[in-house]
Amino acid sequence: MTLDKIYKSVLEGDAPGTEANVKSSLDEGVEAGKILNESLIAAMHEVGNRFENGEYYVPEMLIAARAMQTGLVLLKPHLVEAGIESAGKVVIGTVKGDLHDIGKNLVAMMLEGAGFEIIDLGTDVSPDQFIAAVQEHKPHIMGMSALLTTTMQGMKSTIEVLEEAGVRDSVKIIVGGAPVTDDFAKEISADGYAPDASRAVAVAKSLV
Ligand code: B1M
Protein backbone atom coordinates (compact mmCIF):
# COMPACT_ATOMS: atom_id res chain seq x y z
CA MET A 1 0.00 0.00 0.00
CA THR A 2 1.46 3.38 -0.96
CA LEU A 3 0.59 5.00 2.40
CA ASP A 4 2.95 2.56 4.12
CA LYS A 5 5.59 3.29 1.49
CA ILE A 6 5.28 7.05 2.12
CA TYR A 7 5.54 6.47 5.88
CA LYS A 8 8.68 4.40 5.38
CA SER A 9 10.28 6.83 2.92
CA VAL A 10 9.81 9.77 5.35
CA LEU A 11 11.24 7.72 8.23
CA GLU A 12 14.26 6.91 6.06
CA GLY A 13 14.60 10.53 4.96
CA ASP A 14 14.22 9.45 1.34
CA ALA A 15 12.95 12.62 -0.36
CA PRO A 16 12.80 11.29 -3.97
CA GLY A 17 11.03 8.16 -2.68
CA THR A 18 8.55 10.27 -0.70
CA GLU A 19 7.86 12.40 -3.75
CA ALA A 20 7.31 9.36 -5.99
CA ASN A 21 5.10 7.59 -3.43
CA VAL A 22 2.94 10.66 -2.75
CA LYS A 23 2.52 11.08 -6.52
CA SER A 24 1.41 7.43 -6.88
CA SER A 25 -1.01 7.75 -3.97
CA LEU A 26 -2.60 10.85 -5.49
CA ASP A 27 -2.79 9.08 -8.88
CA GLU A 28 -4.52 6.16 -7.16
CA GLY A 29 -7.12 8.64 -5.89
CA VAL A 30 -6.13 8.56 -2.23
CA GLU A 31 -7.45 11.69 -0.52
CA ALA A 32 -4.76 14.31 0.26
CA GLY A 33 -5.86 14.66 3.91
CA LYS A 34 -5.47 10.90 4.39
CA ILE A 35 -1.95 10.97 2.92
CA LEU A 36 -1.08 13.90 5.19
CA ASN A 37 -2.40 12.45 8.44
CA GLU A 38 -1.85 8.72 8.02
CA SER A 39 1.57 8.76 6.40
CA LEU A 40 3.43 12.11 6.56
CA ILE A 41 2.38 13.33 10.02
CA ALA A 42 2.38 9.77 11.43
CA ALA A 43 5.95 9.30 10.20
CA MET A 44 7.12 12.57 11.77
CA HIS A 45 5.56 11.43 15.03
CA GLU A 46 7.59 8.23 14.86
CA VAL A 47 10.72 10.26 14.02
CA GLY A 48 10.12 12.15 17.28
CA ASN A 49 9.77 8.87 19.20
CA ARG A 50 13.01 7.55 17.74
CA PHE A 51 14.79 10.80 18.60
CA GLU A 52 13.56 10.50 22.18
CA ASN A 53 14.75 6.88 22.37
CA GLY A 54 18.19 7.79 21.07
CA GLU A 55 17.74 5.86 17.81
CA TYR A 56 17.69 9.04 15.71
CA TYR A 57 19.79 12.18 16.03
CA VAL A 58 19.32 15.71 14.63
CA PRO A 59 20.59 14.82 11.10
CA GLU A 60 17.98 12.04 10.80
CA MET A 61 15.25 14.43 12.01
CA LEU A 62 16.40 16.98 9.47
CA ILE A 63 16.41 14.66 6.46
CA ALA A 64 13.03 13.23 7.51
CA ALA A 65 11.69 16.81 7.66
CA ARG A 66 13.06 17.49 4.16
CA ALA A 67 11.39 14.33 2.85
CA MET A 68 8.12 15.41 4.44
CA GLN A 69 8.40 18.86 2.80
CA THR A 70 8.69 17.28 -0.68
CA GLY A 71 5.44 15.43 0.03
CA LEU A 72 3.75 18.59 1.30
CA VAL A 73 4.61 20.49 -1.88
CA LEU A 74 2.68 17.91 -3.88
CA LEU A 75 -0.27 17.90 -1.48
CA LYS A 76 -0.59 21.68 -1.25
CA PRO A 77 -2.75 22.22 -4.38
CA HIS A 78 -5.10 19.49 -3.13
CA LEU A 79 -5.33 20.88 0.39
CA VAL A 80 -5.67 24.49 -0.70
CA GLU A 81 -8.89 25.12 -2.57
CA ALA A 82 -8.92 28.26 -4.69
CA GLY A 83 -9.66 31.08 -2.25
CA ILE A 84 -12.59 33.11 -3.47
CA GLU A 85 -12.57 36.24 -1.40
CA SER A 86 -10.18 37.17 1.42
CA ALA A 87 -11.54 35.89 4.72
CA GLY A 88 -9.07 38.10 6.57
CA LYS A 89 -5.36 38.79 6.90
CA VAL A 90 -3.06 36.60 9.02
CA VAL A 91 0.50 37.28 10.12
CA ILE A 92 2.09 34.00 11.20
CA GLY A 93 5.49 32.83 12.41
CA THR A 94 7.43 30.45 14.63
CA VAL A 95 8.63 32.19 17.77
CA LYS A 96 12.16 33.32 18.56
CA GLY A 97 14.75 30.57 19.06
CA ASP A 98 12.57 27.95 17.35
CA LEU A 99 13.39 26.60 13.89
CA HIS A 100 10.51 24.10 13.50
CA ASP A 101 8.32 25.19 10.61
CA ILE A 102 6.46 22.16 9.24
CA GLY A 103 3.42 22.59 11.50
CA LYS A 104 3.39 26.36 11.02
CA ASN A 105 3.57 25.89 7.23
CA LEU A 106 0.65 23.46 7.37
CA VAL A 107 -1.44 25.91 9.38
CA ALA A 108 -0.58 28.70 6.91
CA MET A 109 -1.47 26.41 4.00
CA MET A 110 -4.86 25.44 5.45
CA LEU A 111 -5.68 29.07 6.32
CA GLU A 112 -4.76 30.07 2.77
CA GLY A 113 -7.08 27.35 1.53
CA ALA A 114 -9.86 28.82 3.65
CA GLY A 115 -9.41 32.19 1.92
CA PHE A 116 -7.14 33.99 4.39
CA GLU A 117 -4.32 36.19 3.10
CA ILE A 118 -1.08 34.97 4.69
CA ILE A 119 1.99 36.97 5.66
CA ASP A 120 4.49 34.31 6.72
CA LEU A 121 7.35 35.67 8.83
CA GLY A 122 9.15 32.31 8.86
CA THR A 123 10.96 30.91 11.90
CA ASP A 124 12.92 32.41 14.80
CA VAL A 125 10.64 35.46 14.81
CA SER A 126 11.37 37.96 17.59
CA PRO A 127 8.65 39.92 19.43
CA ASP A 128 9.85 43.07 17.65
CA GLN A 129 9.44 41.41 14.25
CA PHE A 130 5.88 40.35 15.15
CA ILE A 131 5.06 43.91 16.24
CA ALA A 132 6.57 45.45 13.13
CA ALA A 133 4.49 43.08 10.96
CA VAL A 134 1.29 43.87 12.90
CA GLN A 135 1.94 47.61 12.51
CA GLU A 136 2.77 47.30 8.82
CA HIS A 137 0.15 44.80 7.64
CA LYS A 138 -2.68 45.45 10.14
CA PRO A 139 -3.79 41.79 10.15
CA HIS A 140 -7.01 40.48 11.69
CA ILE A 141 -5.08 37.58 13.20
CA MET A 142 -1.56 36.95 14.42
CA GLY A 143 -0.53 33.29 14.70
CA MET A 144 2.41 32.02 16.75
CA SER A 145 3.79 28.49 16.58
CA ALA A 146 6.29 26.84 18.97
CA LEU A 147 7.56 23.27 19.16
CA LEU A 148 9.87 23.54 22.14
CA THR A 149 8.87 23.84 25.78
CA THR A 150 11.59 26.45 26.11
CA THR A 151 10.55 28.64 23.15
CA MET A 152 6.80 28.53 23.88
CA GLN A 153 7.52 31.04 26.66
CA GLY A 154 8.32 33.49 23.86
CA MET A 155 4.60 33.61 23.06
CA LYS A 156 3.97 35.21 26.44
CA SER A 157 6.72 37.79 26.03
CA THR A 158 5.55 38.60 22.50
CA ILE A 159 2.02 39.31 23.78
CA GLU A 160 3.45 41.46 26.58
CA VAL A 161 5.53 43.46 24.09
CA LEU A 162 2.44 43.92 21.87
CA GLU A 163 0.62 45.28 24.93
CA GLU A 164 3.46 47.67 25.74
CA ALA A 165 3.45 48.89 22.12
CA GLY A 166 -0.31 49.56 22.38
CA VAL A 167 -1.23 47.25 19.49
CA ARG A 168 -2.46 44.17 21.41
CA ASP A 169 -6.14 45.04 20.99
CA SER A 170 -5.84 45.62 17.25
CA VAL A 171 -5.31 41.91 16.52
CA LYS A 172 -6.62 38.49 17.58
CA ILE A 173 -3.89 36.07 18.62
CA ILE A 174 -3.92 32.31 17.96
CA VAL A 175 -1.23 30.00 19.34
CA GLY A 176 -0.35 26.37 18.66
CA GLY A 177 2.38 23.76 18.38
CA ALA A 178 3.02 20.40 20.05
CA PRO A 179 3.77 21.59 23.63
CA VAL A 180 1.08 24.33 23.61
CA THR A 181 -2.23 23.68 25.38
CA ASP A 182 -5.53 25.44 25.73
CA ASP A 183 -4.70 26.23 29.37
CA PHE A 184 -1.36 27.76 28.37
CA ALA A 185 -3.12 29.87 25.72
CA LYS A 186 -5.55 31.18 28.36
CA GLU A 187 -2.74 31.80 30.83
CA ILE A 188 -0.90 34.06 28.37
CA SER A 189 -4.14 35.79 27.27
CA ALA A 190 -4.12 34.56 23.68
CA ASP A 191 -7.53 34.73 21.97
CA GLY A 192 -7.42 31.20 20.59
CA TYR A 193 -5.62 27.87 20.58
CA ALA A 194 -5.74 25.08 18.03
CA PRO A 195 -4.19 21.60 18.35
CA ASP A 196 -3.94 21.10 14.58
CA ALA A 197 -4.14 22.90 11.26
CA SER A 198 -7.78 22.24 10.46
CA ARG A 199 -8.90 23.39 13.88
CA ALA A 200 -6.72 26.50 13.45
CA VAL A 201 -8.95 27.38 10.46
CA ALA A 202 -12.10 26.96 12.56
CA VAL A 203 -10.68 29.12 15.35
CA ALA A 204 -9.51 31.80 12.88
CA LYS A 205 -12.95 31.91 11.26
CA SER A 206 -14.63 32.24 14.63
CA LEU A 207 -12.40 35.19 15.55
CA VAL A 208 -12.87 37.39 12.45
CO1 B1M B 1 13.00 19.01 16.83
N1 B1M B 1 12.22 18.61 18.58
N2 B1M B 1 14.53 19.81 17.70
N3 B1M B 1 13.68 19.23 15.02
N4 B1M B 1 11.61 17.95 16.26
C1 B1M B 1 10.81 18.05 18.58
C2 B1M B 1 9.78 19.17 18.66
C3 B1M B 1 10.85 17.14 19.89
C4 B1M B 1 9.46 16.95 20.55
C5 B1M B 1 11.51 15.78 19.56
C6 B1M B 1 11.53 14.83 20.74
O1 B1M B 1 12.33 14.98 21.63
N5 B1M B 1 10.61 13.88 20.77
C7 B1M B 1 11.88 17.94 20.79
C8 B1M B 1 11.25 19.02 21.70
C9 B1M B 1 11.28 18.62 23.17
C10 B1M B 1 10.67 19.68 24.02
O2 B1M B 1 10.84 20.85 23.88
N6 B1M B 1 9.91 19.20 24.99
C11 B1M B 1 12.78 18.55 19.73
C12 B1M B 1 14.11 19.01 19.98
C13 B1M B 1 14.64 18.73 21.38
C14 B1M B 1 14.88 19.66 19.01
C15 B1M B 1 16.31 20.25 19.18
C16 B1M B 1 16.54 21.02 20.50
C17 B1M B 1 17.31 19.08 19.00
C18 B1M B 1 18.75 19.41 19.21
O3 B1M B 1 19.31 20.24 18.54
N7 B1M B 1 19.32 18.76 20.19
C19 B1M B 1 16.42 21.18 17.95
C20 B1M B 1 15.92 22.61 18.23
C21 B1M B 1 16.21 23.55 17.07
C22 B1M B 1 15.49 24.86 17.27
O4 B1M B 1 14.33 24.97 16.93
N8 B1M B 1 16.19 25.84 17.81
C23 B1M B 1 15.48 20.50 17.01
C24 B1M B 1 15.63 20.54 15.62
C25 B1M B 1 14.79 19.92 14.72
C26 B1M B 1 15.07 19.86 13.21
C27 B1M B 1 15.61 21.19 12.64
C28 B1M B 1 16.07 18.77 12.95
C29 B1M B 1 13.67 19.42 12.65
C30 B1M B 1 12.75 20.59 12.21
C31 B1M B 1 12.76 20.83 10.72
C32 B1M B 1 11.69 21.81 10.30
O5 B1M B 1 10.69 22.06 10.97
N9 B1M B 1 11.91 22.39 9.14
C33 B1M B 1 13.01 18.79 13.88
C34 B1M B 1 11.88 17.93 13.84
C35 B1M B 1 11.46 17.48 12.46
C36 B1M B 1 11.18 17.51 15.01
C37 B1M B 1 10.01 16.50 15.13
C38 B1M B 1 10.59 15.12 14.92
C39 B1M B 1 8.84 16.68 14.18
C40 B1M B 1 8.17 18.08 14.21
C41 B1M B 1 7.15 18.15 13.08
O6 B1M B 1 7.43 18.68 12.04
N10 B1M B 1 5.97 17.51 13.29
C42 B1M B 1 9.53 16.77 16.62
C43 B1M B 1 8.89 15.57 17.29
C44 B1M B 1 7.38 15.63 17.31
O7 B1M B 1 6.76 16.66 17.15
N11 B1M B 1 6.76 14.51 17.60
C45 B1M B 1 10.68 17.47 17.22
C46 B1M B 1 4.92 17.42 12.27
C47 B1M B 1 4.04 18.69 12.31
C48 B1M B 1 2.94 18.56 11.27
O8 B1M B 1 3.44 18.75 13.59
O9 B1M B 1 4.76 20.82 14.24
O10 B1M B 1 3.26 19.62 15.94
P1 B1M B 1 3.53 20.04 14.54
O11 B1M B 1 2.32 20.96 14.05
C49 B1M B 1 0.95 20.61 14.20
C50 B1M B 1 0.32 21.10 15.53
O12 B1M B 1 1.25 21.24 16.58
C51 B1M B 1 -0.38 22.35 15.15
O13 B1M B 1 -0.81 22.11 13.82
C52 B1M B 1 0.20 21.39 13.13
C53 B1M B 1 -0.43 20.56 12.06
O14 B1M B 1 -1.39 19.67 12.55
N12 B1M B 1 0.30 23.65 15.15
C54 B1M B 1 -0.43 24.80 15.26
C55 B1M B 1 1.59 23.97 14.97
N13 B1M B 1 1.74 25.29 14.97
C56 B1M B 1 0.53 25.83 15.13
C57 B1M B 1 0.11 27.17 15.18
C58 B1M B 1 -1.26 27.43 15.36
C59 B1M B 1 -2.18 26.39 15.51
C60 B1M B 1 -1.78 25.07 15.45
O15 B1M B 1 -1.76 28.67 15.40
C61 B1M B 1 -0.99 29.76 15.00
In short:
This protein has about 210 residues and is of the alpha/beta class. The protein is built from nine helices and five strands; from the N terminus they run H-H-H-H-E-H-E-H-E-H-E-H-E-H. The longest helix has 22 residues, at about 60-80.
Overview of the molecule:
With 208 residues, the protein is of the alpha/beta class. The protein folds into two domains: 2-81, Methyltransferase, Methionine Synthase (B12-binding Domains), Chain A, domain 1, CATH 1.10.1240; 89-207, 3-Layer(aba) Sandwich (Rossmann fold), CATH 3.40.50.280. Helix content is 57%, strand content 12%. It is built from nine helices and five strands, in the order ααααβαβαβαβαβα. A five-stranded parallel sheet has the order 2-1-3-4-5, with helices on both faces. The model has no long low-confidence stretch (mean pLDDT 93). CO-5-methoxybenzimidazolylcobamide binds at residues 41, 44-45, 47-48, 51-52, 58, 61-62, 65, 92, 97-104, 106-107, 143-145, 147-149, 174-179, 194, 196-197, 200.
Overall 3D shape = globular
What's the CATH class of the largest domain, please? Alpha Beta
Helix % is 55-70%
Task: Note the total helix count.
Answer: 9
Structure characteristics:
binds CO-5-methoxybenzimidazolylcobamide; 5-stranded parallel beta sheet; 208 residues; Rossmann fold; globular; Methyltransferase, Methionine Synthase (B12-binding Domains), Chain A, domain 1
Outline the fold blueprint.
Blueprint: H1 2-11, H2 15-27, H3 32-52, H4 58-79, E1 88-94, H5 102-113, E2 116-120, H6 127-137, E3 141-145, H7 153-164, E4 172-176, H8 182-187, E5 192-193, H9 197-207
Parallel strand pairs: 1-2, 1-3, 3-4, 4-5
The structure holds CO-5-methoxybenzimidazolylcobamide.
